[in-house]
Each structure stands twice: as structure tokens, then as C-alpha cells.
């Protein structure tokens, strides 16, 4: 993985005239709209990047966008890789390794998630203040690459408190409904059963999804401060029990794109 990461990073550096991103941004399901706000300098298709996996999910278009967002240099992943697509954890997190090798200072990730907290409403934003990894594996399993980070990384502050406070302040200023919450990651691709939602609530989770945690683990391994935000696209764990579909998830995520875009745009200017 180290050699592949170096090779891919070198390819990207030469394809982008040594563009130096300060922020790495991962745009989740239905949330790719932020990409339109980036004054893009270079766009690379995943297909053309050596060693990059190719996204297979509807709503994930598969591009790396390099450019300026509110005056800051960013690289954004439009479309991420999920464990349920059949990729290994190393493949899922490969772009994050490359972002780190490119020299990002901060990682911002977004996702669509199911909400279990009864205070939440569909369309709310949840600023992730901690996570529970319920995926049956971890991207750091295997020989540790000491150049990347320690064998046993600390996870006591996985989500940067100053970015959390800043996000909340911006959301409040714009009258956007938002909360802090704990994100639980499951492999999917099934949505949760009613019993699973109830259990997730009892173990302290507020939102659940199928991404984000592997990416944050890899970034924290390298000591990169992280910010994560979920759009609540559906609710579970309490009555009335409702069906969930991928189409609805995408629809709600799209409808929330503007709010999320505004917050991320303001955040990058201030941190
Ligand atoms: N679970 C439940 N609801 C969701 C998810 C999930 O993983 N992702 C988006 N909505």
C-alpha cells in the first residue's frame, strides 16, 4: 500500500501541476453539490488515476476535484468507496492515504445517515462528535506502516472540537437545524431492522451509516484533524416504523445540499 500510495500521489502531483490542497473533502451520497462551489483547477476521473478503485453506486460520480473553495485550496472526492461494494478496507481508505500524502491539513467528510435520536427530524444536520465502529474490521489491521502513524492510535478526540463548535455556530447563524451526535458505522448494504435501530440507540448512537468511520480512522492514524457531518435522511428505532429506500435517501440528501454546502464553505474560510 505504501508503494501504491506514493505512485498515485506522484501521478496526481504531476497531473495537477503540484496543486497543494489544504483540505480533503469527502462528499457523501447525494451531497456532491458542493463540488459546484469549487473553482476547479483540475478534475481527475477515478478511472484515470492509477490504483484508484472505481465507484459503483448510484449518486456517486467518481471524480477528484482540485480547486479553491472560498479562497482555500481543497481536494474533494465526488463519490466515495464503501466496504459493501466489495472493496477491502485498504481500498476504501486508499484516497485518504493519498490525500494525506498530498499534504492535507484537515479532513472534512459528509454522509447520509439514518437517525435514531427522537429529537432528530429528516433533513437535520448532525455534527459527528464521536463514533462507534461496528464494522467487523478496521483499515489499520495488518502490518503497521510506521511512516503513516502509530500501531495503536489514540481515538479520544477523533472529531476536532473547534471545528464542531464552528459548524454549530455557522448553522445557528443561518437558522439551520443541527445537533451533535454519535455516528455508528455498519457495513450495510441492508438498512437496519427495527430491532437493530433500537439496539443502536441503547448503545449510545444517534445516527447510523455505512461509511465515514474507516476514513476517519485512517486520517486520525496520521494525526489529521477531522470533521464529519451527517444529513439525517430517514428515521428508525421508534414508532411509526418506516421503510427506507436508497432513492429517498438520495432525495433528502439532495434537498439538504444547500445547507451543508454553505456550512462547509464558511468553515474552510475560518479554519
Ligand atoms: N442506515 C439507515 N439509514 C440510512 C443509512 C444507513 O446506513 N444511510 C442513509 N440512511
Keywords:
Rossmann fold, five-stranded mixed β-barrel, 7 helices
Give a description of the structure.
- By secondary structure, the chain is an alpha/beta fold.
- The protein contains 7 helices and 9 strands, in the order αββββααββαβαβαβα.
- The chain has a 5-stranded mixed β-barrel with strand order 5-8-7-6-9.
- Helix 4 (161-173) crosses helix 7 (246-270).
- Bound molecules: hypoxanthine.
- Overall geometric form: globular
* Biggest beta sheet attributes: 5 strands, mixed, barrel
CATH topology assignment:
Rossmann fold
What's the mean pLDDT score?
93
Output the structural class: alpha/beta
Measure the end-to-end span. Answer: 31 Å
How many domains, as an integer?
A: 1
- Helical residues, percent: 25-40%
Order of helices and strands: HEEEEHHEEHEHEHEH
CATH class: Alpha Beta
In the CATH hierarchy, what is the superfamily?
Nucleoside phosphorylase domain
Q: Roughly what fraction of the amino acids lie in strands? A: 15-25%
**How many β-strand stretches?**
9
Number of helices: 7
Low-confidence stretches: none
Radius of gyration: 17 Å
CATH level-two architecture: 3-Layer(aba) Sandwich
Strand order of the largest sheet: 5-8-7-6-9
Ligand list:
hypoxanthine
Amino acid at each position: 500500500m505504501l508503494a501504491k500510495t506514493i505512485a498515485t500521489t506522484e501521478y496526481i502531483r504531476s497531473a495537477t501541476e503540484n496543486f497543494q490542497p489544504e483540505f480533503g473533502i469527502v462528499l457523501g451520497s447525494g451531497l456532491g453539490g458542493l463540488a459546484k462551489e469549487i473553482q476547479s483547477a483540475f478534475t481527475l476521473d477515478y478511472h484515470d488515476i492509477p490504483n484508484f478503485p472505481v465507484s459503483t453506486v448510484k449518486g456517486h460520480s467518481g471524480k477528484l476535484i482540485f480547486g479553491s473553495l472560498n479562497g482555500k485550496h481543497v481536494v474533494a472526492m465526488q463519490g466515495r468507496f464503501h466496504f459493501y461494494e466489495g472493496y477491502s478496507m485498504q481500498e476504501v481508505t486508499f484516497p485518504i492515504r493519498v490525500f494525506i500524502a498530498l499534504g492535507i491539513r484537515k479532513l472534512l467528510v459528509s454522509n447520509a445517515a439514518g437517525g435514531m435520536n427522537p429529537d432528530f427530524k429528516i433533513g437535520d444536520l448532525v455534527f459527528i462528535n464521536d463514533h462507534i465502529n461496528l464494522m467487523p474490521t478496521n483499515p489499520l489491521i495488518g502490518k503497521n506502516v510506521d511512516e503513516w502513524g502509530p500501531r495503536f492510535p489514540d481515538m479520544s478526540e477523533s472529531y476536532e472540537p473547534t471545528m464542531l463548535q464552528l459548524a454549530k455556530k455557522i448553522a445557528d447563524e443561518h437558522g439551520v437545524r443541527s445537533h451533535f451526535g454519535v455516528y455508528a458505522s455498519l457495513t450495510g448494504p441492508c438498512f437496519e431492522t427495527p430491532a437493530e435501530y433500537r439496539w443502536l440507540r441503547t448503545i449510545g448512537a444517534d445516527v447510523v451509516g455505512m461509511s465515514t468511520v474507516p476514513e476517519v480512522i485512517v486520517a486520525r492514524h496520521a494525526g489529521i484533524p477531522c470533521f464529519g457531518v451527517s444529513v439525517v435522511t430517514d428515521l428508525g428505532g421508534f414508532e411509526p416504523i418506516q421503510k427506507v429506500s436508497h432513492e429517498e435517501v438520495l432525495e433528502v440528501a439532495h434537498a439538504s445540499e444547500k445547507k451543508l454546502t454553505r456550512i462547509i464553505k464558511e468553515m474552510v474560510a475560518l479554519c
